[in-house]
Design goal:
The chain has 3 helices and 21 strands. The radius of gyration is 29 Å and the shape is elongated. By secondary structure, the chain is mainly beta. The model has no long low-confidence stretch (mean pLDDT 83). It has a domain of 226 residues: Maltoporin, Chain A.
Length: 370
């Protein structure tokens, strides 16, 4: 990193870092349909009386169909970083930044292995070739510092995501030793199949309230509001997805040969609008805070075949925190999280998909600092 003072009021910080990742994963694959391995002359011959596998139980033979798979991959990336700080007048600061980042896939998704459901002709396969998601962030923040430790700020941000990881459904053909025919199977896996973006603004105001009255000098008010537009572009097939068991090859062909089109969908688990307000007191012996957190509804889970989205209903949660200092080293505290007992209400479009009470949490204890 290098810092350049272009002018007294203008500072530029620039640099880059390089990350290299090498992954080796070992997993287990089970293929319950591969019963040909037990036929005469096969590696696990259970038919011939002289075979060491003759007379084995079905459970013991099934355990032989577990095989070890090893997957390896490596990748590297250079991450540039540019930050600018500009102070045109006293107490007014403008900050701008361009950064790049990387989100590696969950380790479980790249662990080699298949889960095979014979009754449904379904294979769920981990993808050892998944590449990390890559993001580019641009942030511009304007801050104005107020008397008595106050600040008001406005931030505009934009993030672009490449190699967005999505679950996808495809078709494969597998040989059935019982019928001696190849059958269509559904293959579910994850791929770098999309791209996403998120842009919006955030407003923050923080101020100690001593300017109202002197007895409020140790009370601080903070409010934050964020609004974003998280969305993704997914390349999906436009044909009708297949839901019935053991579909025909014609049904699979119709779906797999249907045209592909980019479809805009919401980014999962990214909140569109949120706000929080906090009032805190910090005295010599006693300190405490009460806070309210609001978030708008947002997409929790996505079904990319049907484009049905499970939404988290908007909610308002409130927290209370109290601390009393017994000495310079010891203090006692009481935390009451979600004391309004806000529930977790998820909806599929306008229908309630599930109702779960998340419940409040209370913590009471003694803390020591050494």
């Amino acid at each position: 990193m290098a810092t350049i003072k272009v002018r007294p009021e203008l500072t530029v910080l620039a640099g880059a870092r390089y990350e290299y990742t090498k992954l080796t994963a070992r997993g287990i694959q089970y293929d319950g349909q591969n019963t040909a391995m037990f036929s005469a002359g096969a590696p696990f011959d259970s038919v011939t009386p002289t075979s060491p596998y003759y007379g084995w139980s079905d459970i013991d033979l099934a355990n032989l169909l577990f095989t070890t798979r090893i997957g390896t991959k490596s990748y590297g990336k250079l991450f540039p970083n540019l930050q600018i700080r500009y102070e045109p007048i006293k107490n007014l600061v403008i900050r701008a930044a361009y950064t790049e980042n990387m989100g590696r896939p969950d380790f479980r998704t790249v662990m080699p292995g298949d889960t095979i459901y014979e009754h449904f002709n379904l294979i769920r396969r981990n993808n050892t070739e998944l590449q990390p998601q890559q993001g580019r962030d641009i942030n511009v923040k304007v801050e104005y510092y107020l008397p008595r430790s106050g600040v008001v700020s406005l931030t505009a941000f934009k993030q672009d995501i490449d190699n967005y990881i999505y679950p996808v459904v495809t078709s494969v053909r597998r040989f059935n030793p019982d019928t001696q025919l190849e059958e269509p199977w559904t293959l579910e896996t994850s791929e770098n199949a999309g791209k996403g973006s998120n842009e919006g603004i955030e407003f923050e105001y923080r101020q100690k309230l001593g300017f109202i009255a002197d007895f409020l000098r140790d009370v601080e008010f903070r409010a934050v509001y964020s609004s974003a537009d998280p969305k993704a572009e997914y390349l999906r097939r436009t044909g009708t997805p297949i839901y019935e068991d053991n579909p025909t090859q014609e049904q699979f062909d119709a779906y797999m040969n249907s045209p592909q089109a980019w479809t805009t969908i919401p980014l999962a688990n990214v909140i569109k609008k949120s706000a929080n307000v906090r009032l805190a007191y910090n005295g010599r012996k006693f300190s405490g805070s009460i806070a309210a957190f609001w978030r708008d509804d947002f997409a929790r889970n996505l079904n990319l075949a049907t484009l049905d989205h499970t939404y988290q209903k908007s909610d308002l949660r409130m927290d209370l925190s109290l601390t009393y200092k017994l000495s310079s080293r010891w203090s006692t505290y009481f935390d009451w999280r979600n004391f309004t007992d806000e529930a977790d209400d998820r909806r599929i479009f306008d229908r309630t998909g599930g109702f779960y009470t998340s419940g409040m949490v209370m913590n009471l204890g003694i803390r020591a600092n050494f």
